[in-house]
Amino acid sequence: MTLPDIIQVEVTTACQAGCTFCPRTPLRDGWISKHIEWSDFAGVLPLVKKGTLVHLQGWGEPLLHPHLWDMAAAVRQQKGSVSLTTNGGLLDEAVAREICRTGFKFIAVSLAGATASLHDKLRPGPGLDVICANIEQLSRMKGRPPVHIAFQMMKPNLEQLPGVVSLAASIGADRVIASNLDCIAGPEMDRLRVFGQERNQFAEDVIAEAMHMAREKKIAIDIYPLRLRQDVPVCEADPLHTVFVTSGGEIAPCVYTRLPLQGDIPRYFEGRQESIPPFSYGRVGDGFEYVIKGKKAREFTGAFERRNEAVVAGGARGFALLAMPGLRNIQAADIVRKQIQLPAAPEQCRFCYKLFGI
Ligand code: SF4
């Protein structure tokens, strides 16, 4: 693997909220709540260059770490960019000033609904009113970074997506990112998911309304796909250019292979309870660059490289088909798509919905 463009650092696995849709809730008995040690964070810094983004977030609330600002400042000193995702409950005036002073690339704040009654039910902890007041305060500050609203589409809250767009615009946010509930630990969480194999007309209508609302309110919006695909060479977590550093100082391909748990990681996939052993490339303490160029990392990323190569080779076949008389673009694309046999993804990616474009 070449040096990563994005290093996601799990500042902590502790959280003051109790989201019903977070794996921490059903898995609370085996959950390891831990702040990252400074020595592990410092081990990341030699790889931070101009153009590297260090995203401070994992399976926890980063604003709980007492040295968060020191970490952000250290990244900036290396000329890297820094960003974070927060649940917004602790985003008070002092925190907002620190964010502006440090110079973050962006801040993402997660919301679970557009009304307090639904939001606070799905996410017991900091209430919607408090979070919105905090976002509004940050949005009004001079020199503040772009503010993104992160919203996970679920059955109970999907209908409120247009309302979230409207709310986001009214409190000064710049973008709404509607993603899927992609880490599903068991059947209870599975009942919340919207995406699947089939078309969902209701979801499509809501999304169309949300896009319309975004245009009207002049706010950017990104919405993740709701249908599984079989032709995704590399998942959106992009382990070819991104690494995840856990609060325990391990270097993993993504957040999904290294949840802070004792024992295996449960994955509820297509109606079946599955699990995978926790996986990482190695420890920061063994030398960041040494670990990401090591055998485990090469084997993992190599599987995705082969999938990319298969698509490139398929594209070349597509050009050859296009040269055939009478064959239209769309037919050639369809033939090639059906012909491409993607090599197997890494074993650790079995039962991961991200591999299906979600
Ligand atoms: S497919 Fe899933 S487990 Fe594999 S790298 Fe992507 S996000 Fe991680």
Summarize the structure.
By secondary structure, the chain is an alpha/beta fold. The chain folds into two domains: 6-285, Aldolase class I (TIM Barrel), CATH 3.20.20.70; 298-356.
Strand content: 15-25%
Rg of Cα set = 21 Å
Oligomer: single chain
Which of globular, elongated, flat, extended, rod-shaped describes the shape?
globular
DSSP strand count: 12
Mean pLDDT: 94
Which regions are unreliable across 5 or more consecutive residues at pLDDT < 50?
Answer: none
CATH homologous superfamily (4th level) name of the largest domain: Aldolase class I
Question: In CATH, what is the class of the largest domain?
Answer: Alpha Beta
General description of the model:
With 358 residues, the protein is an alpha/beta fold. The chain has two domains: 6-285, Aldolase class I (TIM Barrel), CATH 3.20.20; 298-356. The protein is 33% helix and 16% strand. The protein is built from eleven helices and twelve strands. It has helices at residues 38-42, 68-77, 93-102, 116-122, 128-139, 161-170, 187-190, 201-217, 288-292, 295-322, 329-339, and strands at residues 6-9, 53-56, 81-86, 106-111, 147-153, 175-180, 220-223, 242-245, 250-252, 265-269, 272-276, 282-283. It has a ten-stranded mixed sheet. Helix 1 (38-42) links the parallel strand 1 (6-9) and strand 2. Helix 6 (161-170) packs parallel to helix 8 (201-217) and helix 10 (295-322) packs antiparallel against helix 11. It starts with 5 loop residues before the first strand and ends in a 19-residue tail after the last helix. The model has no long low-confidence stretch (mean pLDDT 94). Iron/sulfur cluster binds at residues 235, 237, 239, 253-254, 256-257, 348-349, 352, 354-355.
